[in-house]
Amino acid sequence: MTVDGEKAIQAVISSYRNYVAGDEAAAMNVFRDRFNNLFERIEAFINEYGFDGKVAISETNLAHMLLAYFDDVDRIKYFHQIKRVNEVKIHAYTAFWLLRKKPIQVIDAFKDCEAINELFVTFYLVDFVLREKGQTELTGQKKEQYEEFVKTLNYAFKFRQYDAHNIELVLLSFLAGFALGSSTD
After folding, report:
1. What does the alpha-carbon distance between residue 78 and residue 83 come to, in Å, rounded to a whole number?
2. Cα 24–Cα 28–Cα 33 angle in degrees, nearest 5
3. Residues 125/171, Cβ–Cβ less than 8 Å
4. C-alpha span between 45 and 35 (Å, rounded)
5. 93 and 101 in contact (C-beta within 8 Å)?
6. Using one digit for the tens of pLDDT, what is the confidence trace for 138-161?
């Protein structure tokens, strides 16, 4: 995290003092860890796909994204009287708020640059699903189905309405599809 990132976190947190009520140090550590994790994942995506110099990460937008995410998750925990939410929900709500707050900003236009955040979120979610199922390499029909899923998911993020609930349902469906598909192989 850069100095600007730390400033962004402090500014966002200070404007939402009710979020860190209680153990402020622990809340800040969780927030900072999550910020750093997402920042590193976005940075890796930018480097891996050759977007260096074409996009930048808005640390302020990323900090606001995380605050909105934690606010939603806190409401879920309160409503259901639970201490933790499951991994699918974590990724679905993270994806939703990444899409809303758009932390990846274009600095040098390129083809399809307006959908860079949607592309990142698509790969973020697919990476989660593949890791969850222990998949590292897909071949044959599974590879074709996977590639079609990636294209369809990215298309949906670019042109369709979505919310955290239906992103969660997509993830659960994809995980179920893997489970069902692997039982017949």
Report:
1. 8
2. 155
3. yes
4. 15
5. no
6. 777 778 888 888 899 999 999 999
